[in-house]
Amino acid sequence: MRHFTVAVLASLALPAFGSAQTLVATRPAPMPVVGPRLTCAPSTLMLPPETTVRVVAGQEPGRWLFGEREGVIVNAGTSHGVRVGQQFYVRHIVSDRYTPWTSLMGQYSIHTSGVLTIVETRDDMAIATITEMCDGVLEGDYLEPFTPPAAPAASEEGKPDFSAPARIVMGDERQQTGASGSLMIVNQGNDQGLQPGQALTIYRQTLSGSGPILRIGDARVVAVQQFTALVRIGNTRDAIYVGDLVAIHR
User: Which domains, and CATH codes, for the chain?
Assistant: First the structure.
């Protein structure tokens, strides 16, 4: 009888053991790195942007800050080629006294407030609706034609090259730190061989450069200009700071 009882208990325990195995096998994978949409990415320019076409007012007198689905008035219309259904980025220049600008990097820090869509036009003005928000749209923000950004495919990982590092030089709108998912700017671009999708290692030197390399996190190139590149921060073990070094995987 004792052997029979043990056998029965063992047979009852087997389904529970099998269920546990199934639970482990179907456990969700780690969440992917997320962050700001590419539409909202910061950028730099070598020359000042064309800021003639602007948001000049809202539909209510006295308003200067506007949110999603609100209507705004634009100081350009059909005589400027503006048409119903057209979409524009809404942007402004940031007075960024923290970023160490150089002759090989854009002198203008650009923040994207959102995207608007033209819903009504006249000869010299138009009414638009804010259809995508990154931040509050301000009276005086300028417009640029909208092109939907596309995330690049990841390239082969390669190995980090610590001999000619780039640096993190800018976050969005004066931000000096980043985290997993953040979009930031590095001071190398097309001229230094960077390509969209390229893998990066973010690190710091120790003991004034004589100690071992301290790896802080990883990143991937999203978009490239001549002397700069937009990168998305991946997994990190610490906050990412403006000034951190970046090894390019080659």
Answer: 38-145 (2.40.10.410), 160-249 (2.40.10.410)
Q: C-alpha angle 30/166/89, rounded to 5°? A: 70
Strand (E) positions, the chain?
43-45, 55-58, 65-66, 71-74, 87-94, 108-121, 126-133, 137-138, 142-145, 160-170, 177-178, 183-186, 199-204, 214-224, 229-236, 240-241, 245-249
Distances (CA, A) of 100 to 35, 133, 189, 200, 201: 25, 29, 17, 21, 21
Q: Are 125 and 73 in contact (CB under 8 A)?
A: yes
The pLDDT score that the predictor gives to residue 159 is 94
Helices (H) and strands (E) in the chain, counts: 1, 17
Q: What is the mean pLDDT of the chain?
A: 84
**What's the chain's Rg over C-alpha atoms?**
25
224: pLDDT strictly greater than 90: yes
Structure tokens at 157: 């990982």
What's the pTM?
0.78
Rounded to whole angstroms, how far apart are CA atoms 236 and 185? 17
How does pLDDT run across 75-97, given as a tens digit for each residue? 999 999 999 999 999 999 998 65
Q: Which residues of 141-150 are buried (b: 16+ CB within 10 A; e: fewer)?
A: bbbeebeeee
